[in-house]
Amino acid sequence: MIRIGVVDDQTIVRSGLVQLIQISAQHEVLFEASHGKDALEKLSTNTIDLLITDIKMPVMNGIELISAIRKTGSKVPVLVLTTFDDNELLMQAIKEGANGFLLKDVDLEKLNLAISALASGEYLFEPQILSGTPSSAEDSTMQIDPLSDTEKQVLRFAAAGFSNRDIASNMHLAEGTIKNYVSKILEKTQSRDRTQAVVKAIHWKLI
Q1: 58: how many CB neighbours lie within 10 A of its CB?
Q2: Quick one: which of 30, 59, 98, 109 is 20 to 30 A from 170 by CA?
Q3: Average pLDDT rounded to a whole number, residues 124-149
């Protein structure tokens, strides 16, 4: 049974999503919240396997909520449902620790797949949301230098929100060495920063 928390300020949207989720006998909605602060209070008394949240909400928005959750050390997967294609907002959410994105008009099959994937520790970013990443057509022609196993491991840690210092500690390497790996990764993936490199690597299924 996958235990889920749902956060959205629009009552009709939230109720519809909860009903959709509960069609599956394998999913249980433990709580609903209308904004991030409300969700944090309910997270303090409920243990969940997945949090589904909107981005734009009053009091505390989705990005602030994800940031607050990660600051507590929680690794609970966060799926962001949105009607917006603002790439800057999505990149901010990824930097704070979001694990996936889907559009709010998602169908039942795709939602179930997303819930199962994120609850199992995977990442899921719907291609049309990530307007700043290559399309399928571009994927077939995009040529990048293959990443080494070590570079892929560095990217996995980066995707989990680890700093260069944390990555160095976990991989038993010098922080300067990690910085060099990150530079190589940015060059190979033609990315402007770590976050974009992570998004591209996930989109291309490199990690």
Answers
A1: 10
A2: 98
A3: 56
pTM of the model: 0.69
- Domain with 174 in it: 136-203
Decide which of 125, 145, 170 is a domain's last residue: 125
Structure confidence by residue, pLDDT tens digits, 7-21: 999 999 999 999 999
Give the pLDDT of residue 137.
Answer: 36
User: Dihedral (C-alpha) 163, 164, 165, 171: value to the nearest 10 degrees?
Assistant: 110
Average confidence (pLDDT) over 90-94: 78
Closest CA to 50 of 72, 71, 14, 21: 21
Flag whether 37 is in a domain. yes
